[in-house]
Amino acid sequence: MLDLPPVLATPHDLDPAGLSAVEDLVTAEIERNGQALAAIDPSLRDVSDRLVTLVQGGKRLRAAFCLWGARAAAGPRAEVAGATAAAAALELFHLAALVHDDVMDRSERRRGGPTVHHAYADRHGAEGYGGDARTFGDGVAVLVGDLCLTWSDDLLGAAQAEAGRLRPARARRARQVWEEMRLQVIAGQYLDLLGQARPDSDSAAAHRVLTYKSAKYTVEHPLLLGAALGGADAELLDQLSRFGRGVGEAFQLRDDVLGLFGDPDLTGKSVSDDVREGKRTLLITSAEESASPDQRRVLARHLGDPDGGPEGLRAVREVVTATGALALVEERIEERSTRAHEVLGAMSIDEQTRRTLGVLSDACAWRVA
């Protein structure tokens, strides 16, 4: 287990009122649509109930960065039209991405409970349904993720409408950020799948996946979305973009470390998933590039083995550590975090927002869950 610095605060600690409003809006959106689904058929009520439970386990990092991006532009006490709805849209978009990602990765656990596809496959067996349980679970999860994606766009539309009543240009800019984010996340997800299918993918390919699948949409795009609604000028948008890119990369690099070395009781997901799936993270590609022939054989034996157990996990961990790949990734997290703090220090923003963004940055880089 890694010895990491403690996280000083969570997004909830830093902005309980703002995130409470976001959570209320997300829950209300799911429940409102759940009523419409149940009116079609009572069996559909379970879908919204499961989503209400699943959405409650999130860190709210994206929502927090969106709200503080708005405050960076407009001031810490300003009421930015559309910011709460945009932050809620991000949470539903993230939920859609998680549900779909879990299907592609064959993950069984998410936020301390069963993944959607796994839960519905289990129900298929328990209820004695006909057909294949895995196909049923996967199909339901695809539809559930699609619903979340649709509802997220509805909320972003509400944010645009709220902002556009007084500031049409801000609403248009926010939509541009949203559309760019959606495109890049899907592109990154495809590159992730392609990397797993092509064993010759290298660290450069791993970095592209890291950037577009996760890093930009975790921090940079939420910041820019909130800042656009808050009326940020070009200079602040550029600074927030550079800050967000560094923090987002540190976040995803930490996620990769936790995916291999983390504590499942804290992360809410298995540490064996990345190994069984043969994830081409920067940890793995860096290890392969520095590995001896014997070490490469160990990685080739265990990465992508769907039946891999504790022995395979332990062997991969040993190679990643011995080749210096773990140390390299930790150095990159430190470097990205330091650079982000330097950019943050140069911004012309109020000190409360600067301090809060700094704490959120550290929470991304040094988290244990």
Automatic annotation (TrEMBL):
Its EC number is 2.5.1.-. Its cofactor is Mg(2+). The keyword Ribosomal protein does not apply. Keywords: Magnesium, Metal-binding, Transferase. Pfam families: polyprenyl_synt (PF00348). It is an enzyme of class 2 (transferase). The keyword Transferase applies. One of its GO terms (molecular function) is transferase activity. PANTHER family: GERANYLGERANYL PYROPHOSPHATE SYNTHASE, SHORT CHAIN ISOPRENYL DIPHOSPHATE SYNTHASE. Belongs to the FPP/GGPP synthase family. This is Polyprenyl synthetase family protein. The lineage of its organism: Bacteria, Bacillati, Actinomycetota, Actinomycetes, Propionibacteriales.
